[in-house]
């Protein structure tokens, strides 16, 4: 478990069994729903002077469903749900303290070079995973220059399982997860239609990071702005940190494949992502 002192607050709810649950994020709250159980109004536990959690309210929304509304002092940054011997723990992550002059200083950023396994191949044979590793290594350099510590989920040609990648980020207690990919088209789609730069997110609190990274890439790379996309992708589902997946260019477009073989274009991709992360964290520090 992440163990930064003061990096989170726990809301502890005694329950006799591990109930099925869901967590929904609101702009300034997390809503935990427990199914097949009734709300225990007496013994929920959190510190009233907490700087992350403002207050917790609960209600029985149906005979077999209890809802806990964990109101936060600001937008969610991440959470985990854990089970500790008779207690369900909602661990709410505190957003990091930011030096707005050097927003990335002291942060841990997980950089995920997409593939293998799988991955697409361009018309003249450039393999996606070769290009994503080149871009990821450049991104690492730029983030370190701006004061961040970088954890690479892959730093060699060999495969790293999709499910292992967010685990590496969580074990490092990373403050952001950024996955680097290149887009392809499904079979039968005209490759000369809509192509350009896009960014994906899943958890709602990742959306501001997706917007900032998208803007950074578009500015540096000069391709068409396809905008941000909400998508349920495996590497974006984990909840302990904001996560985005970048599809900075289209490997299937011959001009973009050719550009991706050049240090300059890989550099533009990496700088765009680094710029975006810097903008996002500076804004978070307001
Ligand atoms: Zn990919």
Describe the structure in brief.
Residues 1-5 have low confidence and may be disordered.
Spans of at least 5 consecutive residues whose pLDDT stays below 50 are: 1-5
Q: H/E element string?
A: EEEEEEEEHEHEEHEEHH
| Sequence of strands across the biggest β-sheet | 9-8-10-13-11-12
Q: What's the level 1 CATH class of the largest domain? A: Alpha Beta
Q: Name the overall outline.
A: elongated
Please, what is the CATH homologous superfamily of the largest domain?
A: Zn-dependent exopeptidases
Percent of residues in helices comes to 10-25%
User: What small molecules does this complex bind?
Assistant: zinc ion
Biggest beta sheet summary? 6 strands, mixed
- Roughly what fraction of the amino acids lie in strands? 25-35%
CATH topology of the largest domain: Aminopeptidase
Structurally, the number of domains stands at 2
* Rg, Å, rounded: 21 Å
Second-tier CATH architecture of the largest domain: 3-Layer(aba) Sandwich
The number of helical elements comes to 5
First-residue to last-residue Cα separation: 28 Å
Coarse structural class: alpha/beta
Chain oligomer state: single chain
Number of strands: 13
Average the pLDDT over all residues and give the rounded result: 91
């Amino acid at each position: 478990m992440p163990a930064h002192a003061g990096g989170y607050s726990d809301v502890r709810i005694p329950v006799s069994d591990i109930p099925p649950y869901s967590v929904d994020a609101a702009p300034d709250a997390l809503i935990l729903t427990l199914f097949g159980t009734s709300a225990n109004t007496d013994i929920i536990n959190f510190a009233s002077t907490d700087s992350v959690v403002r207050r917790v309210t609960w209600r029985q929304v149906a005979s077999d469903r209890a809802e806990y509304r964990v109101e936060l002092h600001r937008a969610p940054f991440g959470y985990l749900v854990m089970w500790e011997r008779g207690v369900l723990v909602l661990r709410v992550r505190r957003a990091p303290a930011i030096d707005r002059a050097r927003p990335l200083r002291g942060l841990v950023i997980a950089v995920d070079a997409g593939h293998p396994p799988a991955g697409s191949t361009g018309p003249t044979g450039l393999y996606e995973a070769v290009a994503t590793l080149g871009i990821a290594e450049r991104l690492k350099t730029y983030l370190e220059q701006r004061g961040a510590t970088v954890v690479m989920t892959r730093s060699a040609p060999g495969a790293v399982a999709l499910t292992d990648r967010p685990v590496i980020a969580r074990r490092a207690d990373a403050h952001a997860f950024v996955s680097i990919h290149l887009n392809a088209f499904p079979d039968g789609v005209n490759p000369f239609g809509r192509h350009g730069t896009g960014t994906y997110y899943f958890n709602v609190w990742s959306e501001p990071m997706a917007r900032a990274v998208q803007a950074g890439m578009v500015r540096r790379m000069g391709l068409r702005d396809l905008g941000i996309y909400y998508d349920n992708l495996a590497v974006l589902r984990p909840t302990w940190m904001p996560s985005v997946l970048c599809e900075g260019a289209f490997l299937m477009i011959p001009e973009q494949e050719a550009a991706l073989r050049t240090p300059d274009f890989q550099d533009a991709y990496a700088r765009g992502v680094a710029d975006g992360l810097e903008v996002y964290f500076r804004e978070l520090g307001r």
